[in-house]
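Entry:
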Amino acid sequence: MTLDAHKEYEDLKKARREAKERFADVRRQLLEAPDAARCQEILEGEKWLRENPLVKTYLEHLAYELNSAREYAKAEVVTLQLLGVLQEWHGTNSPPVLNQLVELARIYRAQEQSANAERIYQYVLTLAIDLGGLNPQDSTVHMAAEGLAGLYREQGKDVQAEDVLRRATLDVRAAFHDPTIFAAFLRTRAEFYRHAGKTTEAEATERLRRSISNE
């Protein structure tokens, strides 16, 4: 390793350490905040978060932590902050942004904000397929379709749920030509049919999935 390369490596280590220490204090404040409004105030005062790509992972972990603790309103604030960081560094409709939008939809769904969740799921599905630039192994499309179908099932809209999975399966097969993600959609459809009591359709879909997966 050259002297310049070594210095660059050490500078990066220092930057990571400083960002981690600085974010630890932000995390503590957010966890102790009494409500989402206070979380918003804290994040608005930390302008450096949008300027430092190293905080992406920290924000992801914190949003997950808050979501797991069912502090959904606070998780929403942190996720929106993370979306701002991702848009700044990757572009408005980039795969990382679409993936995080699915997480935001889940938070809305947990808060029974069905209209917001539905709108985001539909947006992600439409855009992800239209872009056609996602890695075939990316699970964003699958998560969005499964989330939207699940939302419809909760509302008793089984026909709409089945239609979402059917259309998404066909779109993914046409866009990606990848058996792995196609098989994942077939598994979800088979599970849907089983829950709906459609045993024949479930078995047929499962057989197709196994043939594609060479099981």
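The mean pLDDT is 86.
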